[in-house]
Each structure stands twice: as structure tokens, then as C-alpha cells.
């Protein structure tokens, strides 16, 4: 049995960052990862990095000739594989150089200070004074008859390993992940149909924004079916109903984009005194400490915000707690922002109109079409709109940006919100030209 100061379970962003920092401080640290194919975590292997690489490549795909599109897609998949392999190697070597011991296998607690690690080579028992649970999340697979028997059903993680471009792609789920893949595969040349169970498209967004996004997707040829009940899958055939009417849809590939859940099944957290929620998420306080005093959790496994940059900030919060400072918490990270990498991307920070109204806040709306931005014309990306909410004192409550490079712009708006800058700071800022960021001059020119 080997003993450590800290054992990190999972090679995600929070885990690898914290492990390296502690090891550089002289701590004896081990990081347990279930598979060498997942060194670096979900993001670089089957999540953010490969998907965004493919989204970027899809925008340059040939048009109109499906055979040319298939050949182009095969090349981009091979290049994506080379990229993720290089990132895995770099992440592994970075931890070794920091002094972290990487252990392959599936970890489970035997008590509050010991874990067993099962691998092809056998079983190891490891102990530590402290632990970080960073096991991430796994896709939710809905209970649809035939879903596991069909050879044409994929998850977001597995469809990016598909070497052949599907001519007809059906996506079950109209959330952000489903929309990203819909936009990407439509750009590659697939005929895409989205099937969502809800009647309202993008229910968490304001209607003007949702309608603008829907219009852009439909202009790509993406069909969006709402209020769908899926009954069964037979091979590549989806049998479903809308409003009581039965129908079927033939597909070369079916993508399940029905959400993700915390990955805690193999962990046996209860043996360590770590409490889980009904959905299997690790319960944590504002410092990300679990119900076991010496065990923390970070990232998707906490069942809250499932984003790599949140996982990175989680590592800062845990490090703050370990250093007995505790000044950084989940409650003082500032306004939450996110981007959906459509073409163009949609990004948002803070409150939208529905949320501000529910809170009883007074606000005024400023908006503008993306087509009025000079750089959007240069990029030939004039679709979309920009919108922000401003309170009576001049502070920004939130922004929704559906335009080219919105994923970069949104960080500037978040900074303004977090630092309590009034909208006039962005209105009067001297931006370089021509850039998408100078659109903030015009958006806030009330």
C-alpha cells in the first residue's frame, strides 16, 4: 500500500491543475485516471477541444458535392485524432514533470482514507490524508426501446470518432450540445434533423434570441421538430409521434444529446462518508468540501455548472481551502457566462429579460443586428443580433450576443459586470478597428 498527501481521482481540468500545483509545492500527490485514452480529461479528448476543432474545420468544408464532403470530413477526423493524441501526451508529461504520480485504473473508496484502484494489471490499495473527486460526468442515455441494440446510435463523445460523414443525421435533444453538433454536421454537408421533446425552442433564452438562432439553423437546412415523443429505434429508423400523429425518420446516424449526469457509480462515495444527491452528484459546500472533512470535489461531478473553465476555477477554490485561506468560493466567482459554438456562436452572461423580470428588476434593453457591424461584413458573418440589459443606475445586468466571435466578446462584458463598471465604460472605450469588439461602442450607444 502506498500513501500520499493528496490523491486526485480523475484527470479533468480541476484535478490535473490542482495535482500539479500541490506537487510543485513538495506534496506527495497521485492522480488516478481510468484510462490512458483520457489523460487530460473530457475536454481535450472527447469534449471542447475536438468538437471546436471540427466546428472550425466544418466552416471550410466543400459545398454541394457530398463525395468531396465525405473525403474532407475523413481528413478532419484524422487531424482531430492527431491533435487529441498530442494533447494527451503533453498533459501526461506535464504532470510527471511536476512530480505527480499517475495511476491507471478505476478508483473506489474502501473507507474515508483508502481507495482501491482496479486495472488490467490487478488491484492497488492507496491511502491519502486528503482527496479530490474529479470524476466528471457521463452522457445520459434515455430508455428508448432499441437504443442499445442499434449500431447507428452515438453519443457526443463517440460520434467524433466516426470516420464516415453521415448523409442523414438525426439528433435527439434540442439543448446546447445538440445544437452545436447540428450546426457542425450541417456545415460538413449532412442533412440534419433535431428532435426535441419540449414545445419551446431554447426555453432558457429570450424569445427574440431563440427565434434568431432558430432562423439561422433552419437557413442551413436543419429541420427542428418539437413536441416529439420517441417510441423506439430500429437500426437507423426513429419511430416517433408529434401531437398524436405517428411518424418515422430514416437516419445514417443518430446522436443522443440528452444531457449528462455526474460520474459517481464506481466511486462508492458512501464508504468515505461522502454524501451524494438523488442525481448522484457529490454534495459540496461553497468551498467545494464534501460531507467528509478531508475530501473535496470539483468539476462536473458536483452536478452544477458543467464547463471546463468552471472546473479550472474549482481548482482555485480547493487550493484556497487547502492553504487555509478560504477566500475564494463558489459564491464569489462573479457573473456566469457561456458560449454555444454555433456558426455564428451564441454567448451569454448574467440575466436575460425573463430572469430580470422574475426578480422584479427595472431595466432597459439595448440591441442591434449583427449585420450593422463592419467586421461582421468583412467576415461574411452578418447573421444574428446583440442584446444587453442595463439597470437604472447604468450597470449591465446581462448580455446575449449571437454574432461572429461572440465567445471572445462575452468575456469583456463579464469583466465589466464583475468589476461593477457602468455601460458607459464599454460605450466610450477605444477599440481597434475593424474588430467585433468595437460593436460594444454601438450596442451601448443609447
Describe the structure.
The protein is of the alpha/beta class and 446 residues long. It has 13 helices and 22 strands. It has helices spanning 13-24, 42-46, 48-58, 66-98, 156-159, 176-188, 207-219, 308-322, 353-358, 374-379, 406-418, 423-427, 439-443, and strands at 2-9, 29-33, 101-104, 106-111, 114-119, 122-133, 137-139, 153-155, 168-172, 191-195, 223-225, 228-234, 237-242, 245-250, 253-256, 260-262, 295-297, 337-340, 346-350, 364-369, 385-390, 396-402. The strands form five sheets. Strands 1, 2, 3, 4, 5, 6 and 17 form a seven-stranded mixed beta sheet that branches. It has a five-stranded parallel beta sheet with strand order 8-15-9-10-11. A five-stranded antiparallel beta sheet has the order 18-19-22-21-20, sandwiched between helices. The mean pLDDT is 97.
Summarize the model shown:
With 446 residues, the protein is an alpha/beta fold.
